[in-house]
Specification:
The protein is an alpha/beta fold and 397 residues long. It has 15 helices and 14 strands. It has an 8-stranded mixed sheet with strand order 3-4-2-1-5-6-7-8, sandwiched between helices. The chain has a 6-stranded parallel sheet with strand order 11-10-9-12-13-14, sandwiched between helices.
């Protein structure tokens, strides 16, 4: 059996579900440049386009994007139909060696391509990743008819992909545990997703944490993120901290939910105190985090949310729910605070404590120190290089 010692020369295909713009956002461009140049690999990314028009372009990696249809079931059906033939073509025409599936659901399409290639005499490696609870995440982002039926389908697809993978990757111990339930014998590696660490570390704060007057939420606007509960908790304490504003920024992935949030703000009479805005580019997000007194993430389910690490890299304390991998990165009372998911009373109490009584300057320094130890670009690159080699060697057995 031939084995590899490093990743140089491998051709890698990312089977993704993100939507990449042309040109790439600066942080994404740095990610793909570092992966290709530092590891010496060629990368092709297959993913959704930003809109209805398919597109292909090259920026450090080659991007092949299929249309993003307006309804989620149609988008996924498109992906499952297009991924196998596109990936098969890349395997035989472009010599792809390793497939990286963004999650176990899209991983089923990548696993089918791998199996078909094997029948044709070509061995390729498959890595299946997860960034959180993929069972809850798929139906939790939107209203789905017959959710039980969808969950059953997702379990079948996940089982198919995970049991045909050569290696697995998780971002936290909790997400690793979920993968282990499906594929207990597969080699697994755990490390955080990419973040443009230097951008957040260098974000200049104009004021000490204790002098800032803004509570920030940054993330997609979906029910699973607990934003309705955050607004309700803020309303309970708003009169006691009249100088503090609440800013909510993120993509309205669930438009009905985003509209309901705006209606909630109006009904509570908080229009002058609460703003809901669109997602920001990474550079602007870093600035927003660096001027926040506190970043709040009241999710019901998470893997290991990099938004918390990014805020901590800025020196901003965090308040989050004790779900998924969050307790692995937030030490309650030291670098931030933890509350139970969905507990509005507890959330309001911790918010008030953080805004009125806590030594936020010390908390911010603790947060920055931890995040700088926890994540580095160099460690991220090394982990992926090792993962490529591990998967390739496993596939050759």
């Amino acid at each position: 059996m031939t084995t590899r010692g490093d990743a140089r020369g491998l051709r890698v295909c990312w089977v993704d579900t993100m939507r990449y713009t042309q040109p790439l956002q600066a942080g994404q461009a740095r990610k793909w440049r570092r992966l290709t140049e530092d590891l010496g690999v060629e990368i092709v990314v297959t993913s959704f386009a930003p809109g209805m028009r398919p597109q292909c372009f090259r920026e450090h990696a080659r991007f092949i994007q299929w249309p993003a249809l307006p309804l989620a079931p149609l988008r996924w059906l498109t992906a499952w139909l297009l991924v196998p033939p596109v990936v098969l073509w890349l395997i035989f025409a472009r010599g792809v060696d390793v497939l990286i599936a963004h999650d176990p659901v899209i991983g089923a399409a990548a696993a089918l391509a791998k199996s078909l290639a094997r029948l044709a005499g070509r061995r390729v490696a498959l890595v299946v990743e997860t960034r959180g609870d993929f069972l809850k995440g798929f139906v939790g982002q939107r209203r789905m008819p017959m959710p039980g039926l969808w969950l059953g389908l997702i379990r079948r697809l996940a089982g198919y992909s995970l049991n045909r993978a050569d290696a697995l990757r998780a971002v936290s111990a909790s997400s690793a545990g979920q993968l282990r339930e499906f594929a207990p014998r597969k080699p697994l590696r755990q490390f955080m997703s990419w973040t443009d660490a230097s951008l957040f570390q260098s974000a200049g704060a104009e004021q000490a944490v204790s002098q800032r007057q803004e509570v920030l939420y940054a993330g997609v606007l979906i029910p699973g993120k607990g934003i309705r509960e955050l607004i309700e908790a803020y309303a309970k304490i708003a009169e006691e901290v009249p100088q503090v504003q609440l800013s909510i920024i993120g993509e309205a992935a669930n438009r009905d939910y985003a509209s309901a949030l705006r209606r909630q703000v109006r009904e509570l009479g908080l229009e002058s105190r609460v703003t809901i805005g669109a997602a920001l580019p990474q550079a602007e997000l870093a600035v927003a985090m660096a001027r926040a007194r506190l970043l709040v993430l009241p999710s019901f389910s998470e893997g290991l949310p990099k938004v918390l690490v990014e805020a901590m890299l800025c020196g901003t304390p965090v308040l989050a729910t004790a779900v998924g991998g969050i307790p692995e990165i937030v030490e309650d009372g030291v670098s931030g605070w933890l509350v139970p998911p969905g507990d509005v009373k507890s959330l309001a109490g911790k918010l008030l404590h953080a805004l009125r009584e806590a030594d936020l300057d010390c908390m911010g320094e603790n947060a920055r120190e931890f995040a700088s130890r926890f994540y580095s670009t160099e460690t991220y690159l090394k982990h992926y290089g090792d993962l490529f080699v591990l998967a390739w060697n496993e596939a050759q057995r």
